[in-house]
Amino acid sequence: MLGNKPLEEPSAAPAAGRAARGRPSKAQQAFQRGLTALAQWVEREGARPVPCGHAEEIAVDGETDPVVVKLGVWISNIRARRDKLTQEQLEALRELGVERA
């Protein structure tokens, strides 16, 4: 047959490979950085809402300089993508006062 190739089995998703090796995906790392920044904010500011333009500096293992997390943007993105969050992620957000995630 001209131009037709037999169907091939799809390869394993890259994220599945990382998870199997015990390394979190980039999305998981980003969520954890945001959660760390939010916890730092809550500890310092209490239940006060995070301004949209606020950025929080956090310490990350393996990094010599602080990492800047655009916390206001992160919270907005989390709320917009709440359908893609796991139950554990939603619970972690609730514990820090983000009820509408």
UniProtKB/TrEMBL annotation:
Residue ranges of domain Helicase-associated in the record: 28-98
Region Disordered, residue ranges: 1-29
Species in which this protein is naturally found: Streptomyces qinglanensis
Gene3D superfamilies noted in UniProt: 6.10.140.530
Biased composition (Low complexity): 10-19
Domain of life: Bacteria
Xref: InterPro entries: Helicase_assoc
Name recorded for this polypeptide: Helicase associated domain-containing protein
One Pfam family recorded for the sequence: HA
